[in-house]
Amino acid sequence: MDKRVTIVDVARHAQVSVTAVSKVLRNAYGASPAMREKVQQAIAELGYRPSAAARGLRGQTYTIGVMIPELRNLFFADVIDGINAQIGDTDYQVLIAPGCNGEKAEARVMDAMIDRSMDGLVLIAPVSSKKRLNEVARTVPTVVVGRHGSSPDYDSVTDDDVAGAALVVDHLADLGHRRIAHIEHHETDRVRLAEMPNAQRAAGYRDAMARRGLEPVIASTSYTHEGGYLGAKELLARAELPTAIFAGADVVALGALEAIAEAGLSVPGDISVAGYDNSALAAFGPVSLTSVDQDGRQMGADAARLLLDRIRDRDRRTTQVKLSPNLVVRRTTAGPASP
Amino acid sequence: MDKRVTIVDVARHAQVSVTAVSKVLRNAYGASPAMREKVQQAIAELGYRPSAAARGLRGQTYTIGVMIPELRNLFFADVIDGINAQIGDTDYQVLIAPGCNGEKAEARVMDAMIDRSMDGLVLIAPVSSKKRLNEVARTVPTVVVGRHGSSPDYDSVTDDDVAGAALVVDHLADLGHRRIAHIEHHETDRVRLAEMPNAQRAAGYRDAMARRGLEPVIASTSYTHEGGYLGAKELLARAELPTAIFAGADVVALGALEAIAEAGLSVPGDISVAGYDNSALAAFGPVSLTSVDQDGRQMGADAARLLLDRIRDRDRRTTQVKLSPNLVVRRTTAGPASP
DNA sequence: TGAGACGTGGGTAACGTTTTCCAAATGTTT
DNA sequence: AAACATTTGGAAAACGTTACCCACGTCTCA
Questions:
Q1: How far apart are CA B322 and CA B307, in angstroms?
Q2: Are β-strands B272-276 and B244-247 bridged in parallel, bridged antiparallel, or unpaired?
Q3: Which residue has the higher pLDDT, A235 or A72?
Q4: What average pLDDT does range A242-259 have in this prediction?
Q5: Residue A1 has pLDDT above 60, yes or no
Q6: Tens-place pLDDT, residues A32-83
Q7: Which of A6, A95, A251 to probe by mutation at the B interface, max B CB count within 10 Å?
Q8: At CA A190, angle to CA A184 and CA A191, rounded to 5?
Q9: How far apart are CA A273 and CA B29, in angstroms?
């Protein structure tokens, strides 16, 4: 309950002005090496730590906010690792706001971060309207991760979902499959159709199928375990059974696997299954799911780098970084049983 | 880039004093309903939001910090859900600091949270010294989750790990097992031996075995997948094979399963395996691991409740909440093959 | 009819920084 | 030696709140 050590205490202890201490703290111009030395020592002796609140009132808070839709998604964890690694031991601190599912929760969280005068924001897979995102980005330096499309106000980092979907289709087609079905996340909103990864994956699937001269077969559900289960059930009930299913996400693939097992079919004997995200579940031995790997760490690192750049120079033109995915082939895909 | 709306703007717009607006904001005493109404309207019209930085300089920041050792652990995600649910739509915002593995990272994060004048801290499974934790708790209201032992300075919420271990041992013994081995996290530090959950689980295992008149068999590795793999390998190399293995955590159990499969043994035919945490991996169909369930959500909710109470009254005596775990029996445990 | 209590409302000094000046000292060029 | 840059250090005004006061009416009760 002892009183907090302030910059005034440090100044007094070092026998210099408050201004001088502030300059040393910020590595600002106008402090001689001798003075720096003196002040550093006083800071160390008193165990002084600047108050972020007071700093925020004037300038920076040295805080980066990360908005994430879902803590349990391991891909997002990778992104955060990447951010953290890049921020490293700069003076910035990364803080994550949990539970931002849905537009309303997102709005609340973005406001909260702005209220707290954060220096920069990383928004991971936001669903808010583009208008809202632009507004936010005009208020505070912002990088959006995992959402396609460009903005004049924020930088973005995405994975090439169209290419990723093509990787899967090509892999399956090369194995000899012709009836390759896709389970997509149902989407109607126009902007999201253009910008959300799920829509891009579906588009990539259609393109790749067309290039191969194959008919697309689509079940439109949601990116959840249940969505995968229902989607696969629907596909298995059709007249012509697919010989392979490309699920838009790993959880979806797991749901599909369950439905396939229930139907008494084997994987990959009767039907091949591929997912997307290369999450820990996909890599997990007993599952061993063929999946598309996005380098989450790299995406996070790029996002952090872009953000620091933008904090330094807010008027810089925005850039869009697009990374290339890799296909990780495991044991759920193989050639079709019979032609 | 428009200027921020401040309390002064609101006051001017509502034709009242700044004090009056502040009172309304904080639901403080001394504002008539009429004035409240007027001010609320001005706030709405201007879209005013109070600056957390400025507030922090004077009093509260309405921010709760959560320190978490590892984002990927699903149990922690449950705890955070619980915290978030309890905080609900109070004015508080929950912020998580990622990557706090190790004492040094923890120190940095706790400092960062204090620098940011957070109103309260939830520390999940911290490894820092007790002295440090007490210091922090004396600076800012703090609740520690998942670490046993009591402190005069912070409240704590734990699961009864001794009881949890006993649940497993009793379950296995009731099935007829007599050679029940345990894979523990190696621990030498004295305080941690008393306070960390892993140590409590090992102690609970020993007690329960003794109560049953059984000899404890322990492999001392670490709470990781690899630790489980190596631990099981070691146990399987002994003269007398165990008929059951109680792993101190689900990841450990998964590693053990891998070693067992490699040795050409079947589960639960040749050997039973149980984990701890009832993580999503344990529940996952193909794994279906018997495990001890800690109600993470409940723990988080309790922690948040205690924290809000302590923020309200800092001099309240500290309390320790201890929850009871449940055993979830799945398909990796069964009676031993032969006597 | 006073005296006190109470209900309203506002003035203003903090809070701990940063930042914009400004002054003095020192160095550098003509 | 004069004129001009550059370096070094400090004074003081913000920044947007809160909280402690005080002032003014109106009510209540002896």
A1: 16
A2: parallel
A3: A235
A4: 94
A5: no
A6: 888 899 999 999 999 999 999 999 998 789 999 999 998 887 889 899 999 9
A7: A95
A8: 95
A9: 64
Provide the pLDDT confidence category of residue B339 given band limits of 50, 70 and 90.
very low
C-alpha span between A256 and A275 (Å, rounded):
10
Measured in angstroms, the CA of A2 and the nearest CA of chain B are apart by 8
Residue carrying structure tokens 């980005």? A137
pTM above 0.85, yes or no: yes
Query: Sorting pLDDT into bands at 50, 70 and 90, what band is B2?
Result: low
∠ CA B164-B165-B168 to the nearest 5 degrees? 95
Distance CA B201, CA B18 (A): 57
Mean pLDDT to the nearest integer, B2-28: 90
Confirm whether any atom of chain C, the nucleic acid strand, is less than 7 Å from CB of B307: no
pLDDT of res. B289: 94
**Strand D contact with B54 (CB < 7 A):** yes
Q: Which nucleotide is nearest to A17 (CA to C1')?
A: D10
In chain A the first and final C-alpha atoms are separated, in Å, by 78
Distances (CA, A) of B194 to B188, B191, B312: 10, 5, 31
Tell me the sheet residues that pair with B127: none
Whether A160 and A137 have beta carbons less than 8 Å apart is answered as: no
CA B268 to chain centre: 31
Q: Provide the 3-class DSSP secondary structure of residue B225.
A: helix
Q: Are strands B320-323 and B272-276 parallel, antiparallel or unpaired?
A: unpaired
Q: What is the largest CA-CA distance in chain A?
A: 87
Q: Residue A153 burial by CB count (10 A; 0-12/13-18/19+): exposed, middle or buried? A: middle
Our CA-based measurement puts residue B214 at a distance from the nearest CA of chain A, in whole angstroms, of 33
Q: Where do the H-state alpha helices sit in chain A?
A: 7-14, 18-25, 33-46, 52-58, 74-87, 103-115, 130-139, 161-174, 190-195, 197-211, 225-236, 250-262, 280-283, 296-312
Tokens of A202: 């579906």
Q: Count of CB atoms within 10 A of residue A205's CB?
A: 27
Inform me whether the C-beta atom of residue B331 falls under 8 Å from chain A C-beta atoms: no
